[in-house]
Amino acid sequence: MTNRDEPRADGEGGRAPLDALEQRLGVRFRDRLLLETALTHPSFAAEVSGDVADYQRLEFLGDAIVGTVTSELLFRRFPDEPEGQLSRLRSRIVSRSSLSRVARSLSLGEAIRLGRGEEQSAGRDKDRILTDVFEAVVGALYLDQGFSATRELLGRVLEPALDRVTASPERRDHKSALQELCQSRWRKTPAYRIVEEHGPPHETVFTAVAVVDERELGRGSGRSKQLAQQDAARDALRQFTEAAP
After folding, report:
1. Active-site residue (options: 132, 135, 144, 231)
2. Closest to 163 measured CA to CA, from 217, 103, 240
């Protein structure tokens, strides 16, 4: 007989949480045990009867895969960036705050198997645990379906993080950054229009808009047309950053 106070090795919610998670991931695991293990916190494994593996080994594997795929995505998106800048951008994308954000977008916390102590201390929403579980799920998918399927998943779920670093203020040329973002998202190049000029000839202030397919992305002003266009691109990048999940 099972102790009523002991966590169940098959998860309290049965298989429904796994079904829902696979739907959010857009993948169907061939070996469900790999996914269950990726969602099993050490505190859960320590409290149940029997030999239950936790996610730590899968996390080790997934961490390396996330780093590799992120490097490739950055290499392709930013063909003119030097190695040092690519390394800085990669560090931002694979940081705990960034990957926990990805985990939340997938509602990973709902499917994690936790021990009583972690459950009571809100472990489902801890950045550290969410990041670990995300990396473990990546490792599990790699073992289950190989690199191609894993890269496809990461390309999808990391896109908002890539958009955020593309729009980062540290990338000074806002027009180039916006062009890269629009090319990545829509395969289109933004256009700029001067929509207003005011002030005396020696102090004219220009207002520009950045558009794609007649859709206004941003608006800015400056003492020259070029500065106004840069300001419009900066405004568009700001809006992209704020809208990213």
Report:
1. 135
2. 240
Contact 106, 21 (CB under 8 A): yes
CB 199 within 8 A of CB 205: yes
Candidate list 36, 54, 59, 63, residue with the active-site label: 63
State yes or no: is 51 an active-site residue: no
Q: Which residues of 62-75 are buried (b: 16+ CB within 10 A; e: fewer)?
A: bbebbeebbbebbe
| pLDDT tens readout for residues 153-190 | 999 999 989 888 777 656 557 888 899 899 988 999 99
In the annotation, is 63 catalytic?
yes
Average pLDDT of the segment spanning 222-230: 86
Per-residue pLDDT of 71-106, as tens digits, reads 999 998 877 777 888 898 999 999 999 999 999 999
Domains in the chain and their CATH numbers? 16-166 (1.10.1520.10), 174-243 (3.30.160.20)
- The span from the CA of 171 to the CA of 180, in Å, is 12
